[in-house]
Every structure is written in C-alpha cells, then in structure tokens.
Write a structure and sequence with these properties.
- The protein is an alpha/beta fold.
- The chain has helices spanning 23-33, 46-55, 58-61, 65-76, 83-98, 116-125, 139-149, 157-169, 180-189, and strands spanning 11-16, 39-45, 104-110, 131-134, 194-195, 202-203.
- Keywords: Kinase, Nucleotide-binding, Transferase.
- Belongs to the adenylate kinase family.
- GO terms for molecular function: ATP binding; nucleobase-containing compound kinase activity.
Length: 207
C-alpha cells in the first residue's frame, strides 16, 4: 500500500455511523457526483465486501479458503471480525482500487473502523486517514431504514440493536435526518479541502 499512497496522490476517509444512518447511500452519491478531471472519489462498503467474500468461493474472491470460511462464520454469528484478518481481507481490494490509477483517488471507506484496534492496525499497515466522518442520526430513523432495506435474512431488529450498541461503544460525531440533498450537502461540507489546480481553488470540501 505504500506504493499506492506514494506522493500523497491517494487519500482515505473513514465514514462511520450507526446502522441505517445512510453511510453507503451518501458515499455512493459522492462517488458519482464529486469527481473532477484529476480526482475521483471511490466507495468501498466494508460490510458489503465482507458479505461478498463470505458468500463466494475462495478462488473467486481472492482470499484463501480458511479466511473465507472464517468470515462466513463471523457473519453468521453477527460478530465483528478481528482486526488482523479483516485487514488481510481488505488489502487486495483496496490495492485494486488505488494501486493503478493515473489520477488522485480518495477512498471513502464506509463502515470502517468498527473498533479502535482496527483503526490502529489500518494506520500501521496502510495509511492514516485524512479525515473521519461520523454520521449522526436519530435511532428510530436509523432503525426504520435498516429494517426496510433488509439486505440479508439476518438483518432484523436484534441485529440492529447489536450493531447500534457496538457503534456507540466504539465511537465518540453530520446530522442526516433530512432529505437526501440536505444530508449530502452536510456530508460534502466536511470532506477535506483540496486544491483543484495551480489557481488554488478549493473544491469538494469547502466549509
């Protein structure tokens, strides 16, 4: 990853928040709306990626069978994957997103970190994020969103409560109670400022 991050061309932003707070929606929207000629936002949902690894054959997922089975077991038990195997699973995907680009990329790492240990291991093995964006949402709104999307048969009220408490146990916070446009403006406002070129114009993070 040191090669991919060389000369500060690429940066990483952690996007965290309770389940149902809209992390994935806002990151996807940013990845489609905020690109410029020489810079691109890329979205990686850690939860979705782990589900993909846990449900796919090891040979197709790019991870060994032992790790793939471990991920599957932790998902079935609704447990958080330990930091080291989590980073082993993420490394090839992050490298593929950042490693061969000819323009600057900001990776929006959605749903990571879930624990302090994961954050520390990530900084040691990959890079320090330029910013951590924490989304804030009323519990009843987050729960309604979580239950309505039901991406997995295990996405029930019990899992929401588990994930909700895990988040606040590990987190100290952009209000996202409004409509999508209001939420996205608030999200964009906290992105780090970048200079778009020699003229020093600041873009995609003015506040």
């Amino acid at each position: 990853m040191e090669i991919a991050m060389q000369k500060n061309r690429h940066t990483i932003i952690f996007v965290i928040g309770p389940p149902g707070s809209g992390k994935g929606t806002l990151c996807k929207l940013t990845a489609t709306r905020a690109d410029t000629r020489d810079h691109r936002y890329v979205h990686l949902s850690v939860g979705d990626y782990l589900r993909e690894l846990g449900h796919s054959e090891a040979s197709k997922s790019g991870v060994d069978s032992k790790l793939s089975n471990m991920i599957r077991d932790y998902l079935l038990d609704s447990r958080l994957l330990p930091a080291n195997p989590l980073l082993v699973a993420l490394q090839p995907r992050i490298h593929s997103l950042l490693g061969e680009q000819n323009f600057a990329v900001t990776l929006l790492l959605d749903g990571f970190p879930r624990t302090e240990e994961s954050a520390l291991v990530f900084e040691e093995e990959f890079a320090k994020p330029v910013k951590v964006i924490a989304l804030d949402c009323k519990r009843e709104i987050a729960e309604a969103r979580f239950l309505s999307r039901a991406r997995d048969k295990l996405d029930d009220e019990k899992l929401f409560n588990t994930r909700y408490h895990e988040y606040f146990d590990n987190t100290e916070v952009v209000r996202v109670d409004g409509n999508l446009e209001e939420c996205h403006r608030g999200f964009m406002a906290v992105l780090p400022q970048r200079s778009s070129g020699d003229d020093g114009e600041q873009v995609a993070g003015n506040h």
